[in-house]
Amino acid sequence: MPQLISGLLFVGPLVFAGVSDLRSRTIPYSTCILLALAGLISFSPANLFGLLLAVPFFFAAGRGRGGAGDTMLIATAGFVLGLLPGLAGMTLALFLFLLFALGDKLIRRIRKQGAAPESYPLAPFLAVGFTAAYFMI
Asked: How would you class 41 by CB atoms within 10 Å of its CB: exposed for 0-12, middle for 13-18, buried for 19 or more?
């Protein structure tokens, strides 16, 4: 039963964060709080190393490349998953993001449309990657 509750507290906020990022380009901090609660249900001190996944995004957000919401989402998902499963989820998410960005660029070039937007929402890709990693562990 705790596994089911933890899973719902993990996947639900990730999906909500992805949808919110698509609609308004913001990630509510309440989703990160719910993710942290999921991590507390099955807490292991080793999972604290998963917080390290957010370090590069923290520095990127400080330089104006990415948002603090993405950084918080990565940190809390890393807290739940731990370092290695979190890294697997992050790798999948960034690979999917890369495929999307390249596909968008190719389609814009074929259709002779203007330049791509300045940024894309990252949370939907993070939701897919971290959800897949959660169900793999």
From this structure: middle
- Residue 113: the pLDDT is 86
What mean pLDDT value characterizes the chain? 92
Separation between Cα atoms, residue 104 and residue 107, nearest integer Å:
5
CB 38 within 8 A of CB 9: yes
pTM flag (> 0.85): yes
Q: What is the C-alpha to C-alpha distance for residues 44 and 35, in angstroms, rounded to an integer?
A: 15
Statement: residue 77 has pLDDT above 90: yes
Would you place residue 137 in the very low, low, confident or very high pLDDT band (cuts 50, 70, 90)? confident
